[in-house]
Design goal:
about 35% helix; F-box domain-containing protein; F-box-like_dom_sf; alpha/beta; globular; Leucine-rich repeat, LRR (right-handed beta-alpha superhelix); single chain
Length: about 400
């Protein structure tokens, strides 16, 4: 048609990229012009949630519309019953470009199934590079977990939350146990760059002690129970076999309900921390004194490029109005003394963030508290210590680490 102008594809792609989260508009755009269709499908089908009750329907949809499969790159799937795994096996085989897979497990997944005979194997999905397990992923034995992880041989980022192993492994699995060895081999073969573990840290620590993760760059651990801290020395020793490690995060904020000051056995948990560029340590005001004591136990042979210490209030403060400022000041004064004594030999740089994460008004860092803490650090603030008071509440239900990441 004379005078008809066609927008360059670079421009239309930018416009469609801007509409990534607007499914209705993407659907309308896909009907406007045939040349827009691939870009619209790219965004419209990039993410999909597959509920347990919808898996059969999704399977039939892929069978009827196979061209959709290559567009899907991020899937969140529910495994509420054992049959869901078999159904997802077909789905996984027909998503050739799947990159990110998030799995919500249910505690009822074994209902009516002999757990020892259950198989957690699905089609090998080589395209997945980011894998997450959420909620109660219950495996009867460690090698059953290994079997499932083995279906994703190219995972670079792995997040494990609340993995329960029914196998009788005692207080901690024996690294020489046959089932533990199978899991350790599976983890060591994967090109893991980032590993996040929430709860049950001891399972991963046991595996790492026999087969170090040599490609690991980032390790993030969150401790929910005091007993988990016993696994920390094992994990830290194993990290000496991870030469590429750049960042280690230790989050003990969930232990704020425990009186750690009476549990002196935990104080040396960080003693054998390897030399790393960044150590992120998250605690609350209730346990800041034990946290500082743990940090002060790191041996002089260790060099930490930067210590990032995050201290927040917790739900106790919001409910009971106790700001624990005395514990906060006491802990940070102890830290200032320890830093002055080590003279930058262990911690080259130190960043301390004190913040309120409650939904109510900020109440943690009033001016007198700020001044007392600042005075305690004195000349350290001019040398290698940065002190930040994050004094506004943020209405978020995220974890402490997520809040500060944002």
């Amino acid at each position: 048609m004379p005078g008809h102008s066609v927008l360059p594809p670079e421009l239309t792609d930018r416009v469609i990229d801007f509409l990534h989260d607007d499914a209705a508009v993407l659907k309308a755009c896909s009907l406007v012009c045939r040349s827009w269709l691939p870009s619209c499908r790219f965004h419209k089908f990039s993410f999909t949630f597959i509920g347990s009750e919808h898996q059969p329907l999704f399977k039939r949809t892929l069978q009827a519309l196979p061209y959709i499969g290559p567009y899907i790159r991020h899937v969140l799937v529910d495994f509420r019953k054992y049959e869901d795994i078999n159904c997802f096996d077909y789905v996984a085989r027909n998503l050739p470009n799947l990159r990110m897979l998030q799995i919500n497990f249910s505690v009822r997944i074994f209902d009516g199934v002999d757990a020892k005979e259950a198989t957690f194997k699905i089609a090998t999905v080589k395209s997945v590079t980011q894998l997450s397990f959420f909620y109660d992923a219950i495996f009867d034995e460690l090698d059953q977990l290994a079997e499932f992880l083995g279906c994703f041989p190219n995972v670079e980022e792995l997040r494990i939350e609340r993995i329960d192993v029914e196998e009788d492994v005692g207080e901690f699995p024996d690294p020489e146990d046959m089932h533990a060895q199978v899991l350790a081999n599976t983890l060591a073969r994967a090109p893991l760059r980032r590993l996040e573990v929430e709860r049950d840290v001891y399972v991963v620590a046991c595996c790492m002690s026999s087969h170090p993760l040599r490609t690991l760059h980032t390790l993030q651990t969150e401790y929910y129970f005091p007993g988990d801290l016993y696994a920390m020395p094992m994990m830290l020793l194993a990290l000496r076999g991870s030469p590429l490690l750049e960042e280690l995060t230790i989050d003990i904020t969930s232990l704020s309900h425990i009186d750690l000051e009476d549990e002196t056995d935990y104080y040396s948990a960080l003693k054998d921390c390897p030399s790393i560029p960044v150590l992120r340590f998250l605690a609350t005001t209730e346990i800041v004194v034990p946290a500082v004591t743990m940090l002060s136990q790191i041996t002089a042979a260790t060099t930490i490029g930067e210590l990032q210490l995050f201290i927040t209030c917790s739900l106790k403060i919001f409910l009971h109005g106790n700001s624990y400022t005395a514990e906060l000041v006491r802990g940070l004064v102890d830290l200032a003394v320890a830093l002055e004594q080590t003279r930058d030999t262990i911690f080259r740089r130190v960043s301390i963030t004190v913040g309120c994460t409650c939904w109510g008004s900020a109440h943690l860092v009033c001016l007198p508290v700020r001044k007392t803490i600042s005075d305690a650090f004195g000349s350290l603030l001019e040398r290698n210590v940065t002190l930040v008071f994050w004094d506004h509440s943020k209405p978020s239900r995220g974890t402490t680490s997520e809040i500060f990441d944002n």
